[in-house]
Design goal:
By secondary structure, the chain is mainly α. 65% of the residues lie in helices and 0% in strands.
C-alpha cells in the first residue's frame, strides 16, 4: 500500500498552507533575539511554501509558455511572409512618395517666388501711385498757394506705403485619398551637453532629459556611496534573503 504521506501536495493543499502561513505574520512582533530567531524560521517556512507552489505550477506554466511559443512562431512566420510579399510595394510606395514630395516642394518654391515677385511689383506700383498723387497735390498747392493742400501732400509722403497682400494659389492638384501634411521632428544627433546646459539655465524643460537609470544604478553599485554626483542621491536598499 502506497504511503500517502509522501504524496505531493495538491493545489488546494498549497492554497491552505499559503493562507495559514500568511496568517502567522499578522501578529508578528520582534522584541528580542529569540523573537528574531523565530521570525527567521517563519521566513524560511514561508519561503518553503513558496518553493512548493512554484514547483507545482512550473510544469503548467512551462506548458502554457510552450503553447505561447508555438503560437508566436506561427504568428512570426505569417508576419514574415506578409512582409516579404509587401516588400516590393513598400519600396515602390517610397519611390512614388519621394517623387511627389520633391515635385510638391519645387512647386511650393516656385509659388513663393512668384508671390514675392508679384508682391514686390504691387509694392512698386503702390509707391509710384502714392508719389504721383502727392506730387500732383503738391503742384496744385503751389499753383493755388493752398498751404493746407501742401501739408496734405507732405503727409501723404510721410505715411508708410503698403500694397495689398498678393496670394498665389498652390498648383498642387487635389487627389482624393492623397494628402500632404507637415511632420516636424528632431534630428537624431543631439548635443547632450548643450541640452543639459539649457535645462540647467531654464531655457529648456527638465522633461527633455531622461536619466539613464541602468548606468546610474551600475555606478551606485560600483561606488557604494563613496562618490557623489549632483542631482543623484545614492541609497542602500538593504535586503534579506532566505532559503526554504
Amino acid at each position: 500500500m502506497a504511503d500517502l504521506s509522501l504524496a505531493p501536495p495538491t493545489k488546494d493543499d498549497l492554497r491552505r498552507d499559503a493562507l495559514r502561513w500568511a496568517s502567522e505574520v499578522q501578529s508578528l512582533s520582534i522584541d528580542n533575539a529569540e523573537g528574531c530567531v523565530q521570525a527567521s524560521y517563519l521566513l524560511r517556512s514561508i519561503k518553503g511554501v513558496r518553493a512548493d507552489i512554484q514547483r507545482w505550477f512550473a510544469p503548467h506554466v512551462e506548458a502554457a509558455m510552450e503553447t505561447k511559443r508555438r503560437a508566436e512562431t506561427a504568428r512570426k512566420q505569417l508576419v514574415d511572409e506578409q512582409e516579404r510579399m509587401e516588400a516590393p510595394l513598400v519600396n515602390a510606395e517610397g519611390v512614388v512618395k519621394r517623387a511627389l514630395l520633391t515635385w510638391e516642394r519645387a512647386e511650393e518654391d516656385r509659388r513663393r517666388a512668384e508671390e514675392a515677385r508679384l508682391q514686390a511689383e504691387a509694392q512698386r506700383l503702390a509707391e509710384e501711385q502714392t508719389i504721383a498723387a502727392a506730387a500732383e497735390l503738391e503742384t496744385a498747392a503751389h499753383a493755388t498757394g493752398d498751404a493746407e493742400m501742401l501739408a496734405e501732400a507732405a503727409a501723404i509722403l510721410e505715411q508708410p506705403i503698403e500694397a495689398p497682400a498678393v496670394v498665389v494659389r498652390s498648383t498642387v492638384p487635389k487627389v482624393q485619398g492623397i494628402s500632404y501634411r507637415d511632420n516636424w521632428t528632431v534630428h537624431p544627433d543631439i548635443n547632450v551637453r548643450a541640452l543639459a546646459a539649457a535645462v540647467a539655465n531654464g531655457t529648456a524643460p527638465s522633461t527633455f532629459l531622461l536619466p539613464n537609470m541602468t548606468a546610474i544604478r551600475q555606478w551606485a553599485k560600483a561606488t557604494q556611496g563613496g562618490q557623489t554626483v549632483p542631482g543623484i542621491k545614492v541609497v542602500n536598499d538593504r535586503q534579506i534573503a532566505a532559503r526554504g
